[in-house]
Design brief:
CATH class of one domain: Alpha Beta
Helix content: 55-70%
Strand order of the largest sheet: 2-3-1-4-5
CATH architecture of one domain: 3-Layer(aba) Sandwich
Shape: globular
Number of helices: 27
Number of strands: 5
Strand content: under 5%
């Protein structure tokens, strides 16, 4: 979502008759008319990217007419991407004032999706579909929510309905392909992606998704098509970034590694993202200082004694998805995927890179009852995924930043730290298209320096939680799958089940960038993969320093 109104609703607003202009001596416009005029101005300012001015007008309306639904709604659209939690609250207030408006439910549902709350998203997107059954954005949003909730099969009829309503909507064919891919139905997904390309629908995303549905042994016709697209000097930067990633992926499959790395670097440059490494270093300093042995000793007995949560974490591309799939193949374990709930709880109590003192006070002042309430909030959310499971896996990789909080809230929870050869890990990150939240992936040097900070923090957690964190080394797992898998299941406190050796037969949907790989048996082609790029990645190796295993 952007900080603009959905097209259909924006059109609806614009179509409302303009307030009648009264002669100078006539009575002033009513409060309703005045509010309407201000909000029209706010919409115009929003479209002109003058967002602070638009926000100020909305607050003027709310000062005069508290809980004005359209004012709340516009404030929600302005908040997206800046403060998503606040945007969600504005949308929720708008819905409470006008519960029959499908667009309000649509935006609230999409905001929930953005924040990772699939269940709440489903509720509001279902309501939007009930109120306006032909609203394609709501159908596609609900479908995405089902995919995120590991119910991709429920997404398919929604996309098919949307396809009949508007076959040229950019969300439909690519979204349907994504749902099919998450179910492992790659051939069907490719057919829809090729249709999207033929219809010129979201070309960058379509090509990038298409080339990631298979591995290429011979040069495909799509490569020349992608390169032709890239020859357009007026190409949108985001589209260019996606196309460079797609070209790099194909060339990598064809073992044309130096050409592939050139495209990956151009993809990052086109995306134009930067990362504040110093702020992250201060954040790591803060975690190490605050979560000291003395603080953890003072918080002993806090939180919940539940053994249900399992946290699989580490750097992205370190084997977290593979580890989760092995665990989730056990009949008593459910893999919930990458959940944002813990980070949302953490943010609410001050876990941000700019609020060290707030976090310090928050953690020191946390009482046993408060910690129990926070733990129960997370557990309640977790239980919605699999009420009867003995263990539920949250495999959000960046929960490695929150191990201190995990240790307090869930003293009996299992923590699995996935590690991998540092250079391989970073190269695997670099060659993939990550979201803006992973902007440390913008260039090779920054990525290597970020990895060093991750490593520094993990060494601290190992020190203050001795014996609590099980380290799953990717290379060890590849070398002896059964031995390492048995260790994983033993760490979970569960009896061994041979299904864990057949993780690639797991019928559940997979919604990460590893979704193609984890449907294959164990393979070792990713070990020391970085050597294919050795002449192109010296800035990364230099930044990693002594962590680089040459």
């Amino acid at each position: 979502m952007s900080n603009r109104l959905p097209p259909a609703w924006s059109k609806h607003i614009k179509s409302r008759p303009a307030p009648k202009v009264e002669p100078p001596k006539a009575k002033p416009p009513s409060r309703v008319q005045a509010d309407d005029m201000l909000l029209r101005q706010a919409l115009e300012l929003q479209q002109a990217e003058r967002l602070p001015e638009a926000e100020e007008l909305c607050h003027r309306v709310l000062a005069r007419t508290p809980n004005h639904p359209l004012s709340l709604y516009i404030l929600g659209t302005l908040g997206l991407g800046v403060d998503d939690e606040l945007a969600l609250k504005y949308f929720a207030r708008a819905v409470s004032q006008t519960p029959q408006n499908p667009y309000f439910h649509l935006s609230l549902g999409e905001a929930c999706l953005k924040l990772g709350d699939s269940l709440l998203a489903i509720r509001h997107l279902q309501r939007a579909c009930e109120l306006k059954p032909d609203l394609v954005e709501a159908l596609c949003g609900l479908a995405r929510a089902y995919v995120n909730f590991d119910k991709a099969e429920m997404a398919l009829p929604l996309y098919e309905k949307a396809l009949k309503i508007n076959g040229d909507h950019p969300m439909v064919r690519i979204g349907l392909a994504g749902a099919l891919t998450s179910l492992g139905r790659m051939d069907e997904a490719r057919a829809y992606l090729k249709q999207a390309i033929e219809r010129r629908l979201d070309i960058g995303e379509a090509y990038d998704s298409l080339v990631n549905t298979r591995k290429f042994a011979e040069k495909p016709a799509e490569l020349d098509s992608i390169l032709r697209e890239l020859s357009n000097p007026r190409l949108d930067p985001d589209v260019a970034s996606q196309l460079h990633h797609a070209a790099g992926k194909v060339l990598n499959d064809l073992q044309r590694y130096e050409e592939a790395m050139d495209h990956f670097k151009r993809a990052k440059k086109a995306a134009g993202r930067g990362f504040d490494l110093e702020s992250f270093r201060r954040y790591v300093d803060c975690m190490i200082e605050i979560f000291s042995p003395s603080l953890l000793e003072a918080k002993a007995g806090h939180g919940s004694p539940s053994e249900v949560p399992v946290f699989v974490l580490g750097m992205p591309r370190s084997g977290t998805t593979l580890t989760e799939q092995i665990c989730a193949s056990h009949p008593d374990v459910h893999g919930a995927g990458e959940l944002t709930k813990l980070r949302r709880i953490a943010k609410a109590i001050g876990f941000t890179t700019q609020a060290a003192e707030t976090l310090r006070r928050s953690m020191i002042a946390m009482t046993a009852n408060q910690s129990k309430a926070l733990a129960e909030e997370y557990l309640s959310y977790l239980r919605q995924w699999a009420p009867a499971a003995l263990r539920i896996v949250d495999k959000m990789p960046h929960n490695f930043e929150l191990i201190g909080l995990i240790g307090i809230l869930f003293p009996n929870a299992r923590i699995i730290h996935c590690r991998r050869d540092a250079i391989d890990n970073c190269v695997s990150c670099f060659v993939l298209k990550f979201t803006k939240g992973h902007s440390y992936n913008a260039d090779l040097e920054t990525l290597g320096l970020y990895y060093r900070e991750y490593d520094r923090l993990m060494r601290h957690w190992d020190k203050v939680f001795p014996g609590r964190i099980f380290e799953s080394r990717y290379e060890t797992l590849i070398a002896d799958q059964e031995v390492q898998s048995r260790r994983l299941i033993d760490h979970l406190g569960l009896p061994w089940d041979d299904a864990c050796l057949r993780f690639f037969e797991n019928d559940g949907s997979v919604n990460t960038l590893s979704r193609w790989q984890v449907r294959q048996p164990i393979y070792n082609s990713s070990i020391k993969r970085w050597k294919n790029y050795e002449n192109k990645i010296q800035p990364l190796i230099d930044a990693l320093g002594d962590l680089a295993e040459l």
